[in-house]
Fold each of these.
Amino acid sequence: MGTAEVATLSTERIMELAAESARSMASLAGLFALLAGELDRREGWRSEGATSIEAWMVERLGLSVPTARAFGHVGVRLYDLPCLASAMSAGDLSFDKVRAVVDGATPETDRELSDLARECSVVELTQLARSRKANPVAATRDTRSLRFNDIFQTVTAQFPAESYAEVRTVLEAEAKQLPSDGSTPWDQRLCDAFVGLVRSATRPRNANSRYTVVVHAPLEVLLDEESELPGELERHGLISAHTVRRVACDATVILAADDNVGHTMYEGRAYRYPTPTQRREIMRRDRHCRFPGCTNVTFVNPHHIKWWRPHQGTTDLPNLALLCEHHHHLVHSKAWTLTGDANQELTFVGPSGRVMTSRPSPLWTSVSVRSAPGTPQPRGHRRG
């Protein structure tokens, strides 16, 4: 059914179809969660080089990390909760409702929560689940976390109750002290207060510059105020020429010399280990482990695709790719093969024979690649 057909339906029919579709979606979500849970129990994802069920779903199924994490977690929990599992698979309960109660559910409360979920909203179920925790403060303390999302440039944090109250009180007090013309939304003032506290805590003593940032941009942007060439704020995406110049005024400027297609210098066989500048460029190009579906960005190191020994591999960007410790071990175990040009496309082949490919970050391609023979051009990028 296309948009033209939907537009001809009555409002009543649209509501009926929406309800039917939601029920079907819930049923499929239930089946999918159960399949994910069983695959995780078997650790079947290991056969394709994944580090977890979430990583496998990201690569194989094209899901986002949060979505994959949610389905994997719910699937595992449903193994001992047949009533909730059956209700969702039958389309009686939405995935959101089951997700709200699954952590607090036990085999003894499974049927009770399944019946309750049919009557309550997601918000009510969430509140009920929180109230049933034996020690909510201790539980919150155990799950304290702070995560950065480089794609959406967001920070998500969970605090113990006392820490949450402290953080909120301090940020609100700081936000109230910020000058405002009355039109700045409250959430933006809170954000400004948060950034202000971070900058004040990290400001170096006896230094003119308040903080250091890394921006990759043509030198022309700094020398020519009319230039409109974009730059890239390291690990945070494209920025306009105007933003490049504004950042350069307030921060320390670090210059890196690139060749005519935007690639940092080559070392050949002169050195085995990448230079600090090469490591920075590799991180900029790959963002995280290059194994398909792996988002590990913390424990990663450059790996020679054509090994330094015994294959005489060079210490050049095309021959260096970021791999996490787990996938580095898989490649060196010789059960997996890694071939290709890290600046263009890498090919991973495992024991199952499945072929997976990995390409550089499109942001790196958009900013770094210039018109050069044999160099793949960025797709879908508009300058300006």
Amino acid sequence: MIGYIPSPSSSSLSIGPLQLHFYGLIIAVAVLVAAWVTQRRWATLGGFAGTMVPIGFWAVVAGLVGARLYSVATSWQVDTHDDFVQIFEIWNGGLGIWGGVSGGVLGGWLRARRMHVPLPPLLDVVAPALPLAQAIGRWGNYFNQELFGLPSKLPWAVRITNQAQLAGIPHKYQTHLNAAGRYLPGTFQPTFLYESLWDFAVFGLLLLIERKVKLRRGYLFGAYAALYTFGRFWTEYLRIDPAHRYLGLRFNDWTSVAVFAVSSAVLLLIGRPNPGDELIGDELPPALLAEERARASRASKRGNSAAPGEPPEQTTSRGPAEVVEAPEPVEADHAAAAVPEATEPARAEEEAPAAQAPGEVPDAVEPGPADPEVAEATETAPAEAAPAVTEGAADQEAPADLPAPNAQEPEAGQP
């Protein structure tokens, strides 16, 4: 044998009193990468990336619960050794992908419904993220020395030294005992590596399908299910760890066959688009885009409530006295200041009829001797002050039954 993949020296990392299991750390990295890809893809469709945070949280929690429940239900003895407490020890392995995907979709859908986000575009954006997370997560099986296949002398065969894992495989595949009564390390097919490589390929194929193949919105998830189960069947077929078997095939093999058949039929029968259907990769509908922009605006205001150049957000608790409206006189002042020449002729026209017919003004005051101070003040008054009085203000200050202030100014200057 030319070489092999060595087994890891440890399955955990100790930092003082804290012990970190590589299996859990790798799963966490896989979840974070999948969340990042999902957010980026949602933003590409025009959505707000922050929308994926609460939906992703619900999906991850429900997915972990579903994955563990599926594994425990199908491999109770292997996962728990009849110890109920070991149900919660997910760092020791025992996560079923079918339960994880089902639980994750259910949890994400429940949260999306509360946020009024439709399911089809969510399925499209998360479809490539799932095989990418699985490709990373499979390396957790390497650190646990589990999910290996038939004995092999290939250069990339994996060496297994975990005595518990060696003792659990069928007797014909167990290696010889040494003098201490322990099984000698053997090399086996690295099915975790095969599946990891296939999952990376599925990730790339889904991105290619999204660009080159016309499918209805939401059916990229069906392409993921068909592609993943096609490769999973062969890697599952190579495994020799304990599992339920029916008609010579492992239970997960039969599950792969069923999921592949159903998903392929769905893609062929109802996945092909009709005229007017929304397609995978299309921008989100206008109504959803508007709601996503509103979410982004609210998130921006929560993060920066006093943005420069923006007034503080008004709330419904303010009373009518706090509502400030721009008064019309302000606009009149601006208009008057901009064209002061236009108001002088108008005023002169008003003064001219009043000066020509003083007798028509009721209760007119007899003109007295000219007051030099008044005349001087009138002559030296700046012309710009006149436009400050608007027509609306003049109407309110001078009722119809009183003489207009402008009518008396010419009489004051008469000899």
